Amino acid sequence: MSRSEDRPGIQVKATNRKGLRDYFVEERLEAGLVLTGSEIKSIREGRASLVDSYATIEGGEAFVHGMNIPPYAQAGHFGHEPDRVRKLLLHKDQIKRLVGKIAERGYTLVPLRLYLKDGKAKLEIGLARGRRKYDKRREMADRDAEREMAKVERRKLRKAAER
Questions:
Q1: Where do the DSSP E strands lie in the chain?
Q2: Could you read off the pLDDT of 18-72 as tens digits, one per residue?
Q3: Which pTM was predicted?
Q4: CATH 3.40.50.1370 fits domain 10-131
Q5: Domain-by-domain residue ranges, the chain?
Q6: Would you say 136 and 23 are in contact if contact means Cβ atoms under 8 Å apart?
């Protein structure tokens, strides 16, 4: 459980598991979102998706592309476009720092989690560097080894308890 999920008032609505697998996340930022009424109602129902989404900085403003929020059923013809580009709310100094980091080779902005914090939609974005294929394989091998060690440890504890 991450440090912000155990705080009261936070409800995680969507995560980007592929983003954590494909990138080394070096820094995390919380950004607000500019949404319409039907979008926030759809998010509250838990129907948003961060698959294949990414963030950019254009003209001194941050935007998220590819985030899918399906239309709210009761909105009727007042609904919204599911895959539209949405503006992120960040401070100017945060945007300037991100522009400097992204200018470096290999950095990108990856949306990690969409959550509600005190009733407002927030997007956690990560300043990330892409992983190579061998890094992913090494991480999977390390995870498997840890799982195997935990299994052996549980067996030892179970045998000790039986005695």
A1: 10-15, 23-33, 54-58, 61-65, 86-89, 107-117, 120-130
A2: 888 888 899 999 999 999 888 988 899 988 999 999 999 999 999 999 999 988 8
A3: 0.74
A4: no
A5: 10-131, 132-163
A6: no
